[in-house]
Amino acid sequence: EQSTVTLTTATPVTLPDAQTVTEVEHYTDSLFRFRVTRPASLRFRSGEFVMIGLMSDLDPVTGKQKPLLRAYSIASPAWDDTLQFYSIKVKDGPLTSKLQHIKPGDQVILRPKPVGTLVHDALTPAKRIWFFSTGTGIAPFASLLREPETYERFEQVILTHSCRDLAELKFGQELVEETKNDILVGEEAQSKLIYYPTTTREPSAKMGRITTVLEDGTLFADLKIADFNAENDRAMVCGSMGLNTDMKRILEAYGLREGANSDPGDYVIEKAFVG
Ligand code: A2P
Questions:
Q1: Which of 62, 134, 180, 244 has its CA 20 to 30 A from that of 213?
Q2: Distance between CA 108 and CA 102 in Å, rounded?
Q3: Domain extents in the chain
Q4: Is the CB of 168 within 6 Å of ligand 1?
């Protein structure tokens, strides 16, 4: 698909794979979500990511623009009409310093090649699924929580989300509310979905990194879950580098084995995710 768009310069450029922004919501001065139109030909599995971006400013030397692209998890389910994304805003970030200013009607580049490891195909069946996230790492779970397969495959679905402060938890709180009211999965979610948010800096009802409350037993005590093992539990992890490394160690100590699309296992981590 090709279309013409005017960016920061007066010269119209041809934007490849252009999609139109339909909705933008800002949560804090460092977090926002947006929706774009979905290309009719795009098929993806809930939990996957795509490359999203904008054209760079004109290079003063070459006089050219180039696409600035980053991996973004699709934060809406595979059956949805539009595509949702959840993003940080970095003042000097090459892409997000520009992307944070998008408005409905603007265009973004969306490369229609979804990939990723946070998919049902990469996990073997079990009783419970855990979604462990920090910050914008919750995005792929915004897709998987509204995916019917999640509730078909598991008796219990546990979403943990750790952020520095309460304002950063808002996207997740709204997500859980919407999921429980969803026409497709709402009823199942009401009986199966458990939401476990924590803050690490601002005081809240539950404080501490998820890794800390997991290792000291608080998480299991709070959820009244006696055991955690490779037979009953499956996990998906998405967040900061530190979360990924620490969760890998913790899950493997419980005997869980890492899975992949080609070799389903007990847990998966999104390595492409940065933030
Ligand atoms: P903390 O405030 O203790 O660093 P960031 O804002 O830096 O991207 O981090 C997002 C959230 O992830 C914060 O609440 C942060 O906690 C938490 N976090 C960072 N590293 C880890 C880790 N290794 N394990 C668990 N949570 C982590």
A1: 180
A2: 9
A3: 2-114, 120-269
A4: no
Q: Is the CB of 30 under 6 A from ligand 1?
A: no
Q: Structure pTM?
A: 0.93
Tell me: ipTM over 0.90. yes
Higher confidence at residue 12 or residue 130? Answer: 130
Minimal-distance CA residue to ligand 1 atom 24? 243
> Contact 146/183 with Cβ under 8 angstroms?
no
172-184 pLDDT tens trace: 999 999 999 999 9
pLDDT of residue 30: 96
In this predicted structure, what is the pLDDT of residue 16? Answer: 74
Ligand 1 center to 200 CA (angstroms) = 7
Residue 107 C-beta-side C-alpha neighbours within 13 Å: 21
Given ligand 1 and candidates 132, 136, 162, which is best to mutate, with the most ligand atoms within 8 Å of its CB? 162
**How many angstroms is it from 211 CA to the middle of ligand 1?**
10
**CA–centroid distance, residue 203 to ligand 1 (Å):** 15
Domain 120-269 CATH (choose: 3.40.50.80, 2.40.37.10, 3.40.640.10, 3.10.20.90): 3.40.50.80
Domain topology for 2-114: Elongation Factor Tu (Ef-tu); domain 3 (2.40.30)
pLDDT per residue as tens digits for the range 31-72: 999 999 999 899 999 999 999 999 998 999 999 999 999 999
